């Protein structure tokens, strides 16, 4: 058995949320996003990594990180969405919220509480191990 770890999946089914969160997200529009960073990978690349790891004997018992390119902030991801979706992205946030405001809002919004420890922390990851062992 091996494990593949990914940060943010992109592609078909991008950011699937549970039903309640989907409904809440439709009702309100956040004008700003927290200063949080993620490694990003296309979900199809994650699927390919899983297939290669399952079929490669040298992958047995190993863990792999699936990431492509550099770490991106939520604001960077929002910019990409606005660029690619054009007018359909009118509700995508354009601003980055100051850390103090996110901390203050987290007192009342439970969903933000999980974000507070990640504010401003950039975690650099690499998929070099997966690339060298699995090709």
From TrEMBL:
InterPro entries in the record: NAD(P)-bd_dom_sf
SUPFAM superfamilies: NAD(P)-binding Rossmann-fold domains (SSF51735)
The name this protein goes by in its record: Nucleoside-diphosphate-sugar epimerase
């Amino acid at each position: 058995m091996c494990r593949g770890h990914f940060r943010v999946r992109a592609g078909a089914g991008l950011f699937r949320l549970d039903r309640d969160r989907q409904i809440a997200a439709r009702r309100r529009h956040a004008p700003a996003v927290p200063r949080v960073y993620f490694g990003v990978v296309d979900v199809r690349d994650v699927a390919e990594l899983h297939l290669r790891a399952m079929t490669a004997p040298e992958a047995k018992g190993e863990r792999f990180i699936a990431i492509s390119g550099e770490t991106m902030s939520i604001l960077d991801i929002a910019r990409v969405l606005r660029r690619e979706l054009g007018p359909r992205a009118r509700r995508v946030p354009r601003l980055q919220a100051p850390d103090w405001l996110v901390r203050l809002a987290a007192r009342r919004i439970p969903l933000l509480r999980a974000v507070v420890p990640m504010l401003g922390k950039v975690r650099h990851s690499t998929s070099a191990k997966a690339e060298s062992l699995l090709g």
